[in-house]
């Protein structure tokens, strides 16, 4: 394997790893459906349909993945969800 092939392989692996992070939103008894939906639209760039589906999933299953991507992209979004009073974490 040449040095160029090895570098390309390492970059490809790093890209795959970095895209495996997820923001998980958890159910709570505090926030309304409207607040959750509005926050997902604002923070995660969801459509109203996406946000509503996530809110329903969170309500009935206890959690839902609301965004995937690189950790560095997800961290500020997760912090905004937390600042809005939602329960979320990056996995």
Shape: elongated
Mean pLDDT equals 90
Look at the structure and name the CATH superfamily.
Answer: Ribosomal protein L7/L12, C-terminal domain/Adaptor protein ClpS
CATH class category label: Alpha Beta
Structural class of the secondary structure composition?
A: alpha+beta
| Low-confidence runs of at least 5 consecutive residues | none
What number of structural domains do the residues give? 1
Fill in the CATH topology: Ribosomal Protein L30, Chain: A
Major sheet, described briefly? Answer: 3 strands, antiparallel
Number of strands: 3
The radius of gyration computed from the alpha-carbon positions, rounded to a whole number of angstroms, is 16 Å
Distance between the termini: 34 Å
Supply the number of helical segments. 4
Strand order of the largest sheet: 2-1-3
Helix percent band: 55-70%
* CATH architecture tag: 2-Layer Sandwich
Give the amount of beta strand, in percent.
15-25%
Q: What is the helix/strand order?
A: HEHHEHE
Summarize the structure.
The protein is an alpha+beta fold.
Polypeptide structure, described:
It contains four helices and three strands. It is α+β, with helices and mostly antiparallel strands. It has a single domain, classed as Ribosomal protein L7/L12, C-terminal domain/Adaptor protein ClpS (Ribosomal Protein L30, Chain: A). A three-stranded antiparallel β-sheet has the order 2-1-3. Helix 2 packs antiparallel against helix 4. The protein starts with a helix and ends with a strand.
């Amino acid at each position: 394997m040449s040095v160029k092939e090895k570098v390309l392989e390492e970059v490809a692996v790093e890209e795959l790893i970095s895209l495996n992070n997820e923001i998980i939103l958890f159910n709570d008894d505090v926030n309304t459906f409207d607040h959750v939906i509005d926050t997902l639209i604002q923070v995660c760039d969801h459509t109203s349909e996406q946000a509503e589906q996530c809110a329903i999933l969170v309500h009935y299953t206890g959690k839902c993945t609301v965004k995937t991507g690189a950790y560095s992209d997800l961290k500020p979004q997760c912090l905004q969800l937390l600042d809005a009073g939602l329960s979320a974490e990056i996995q």
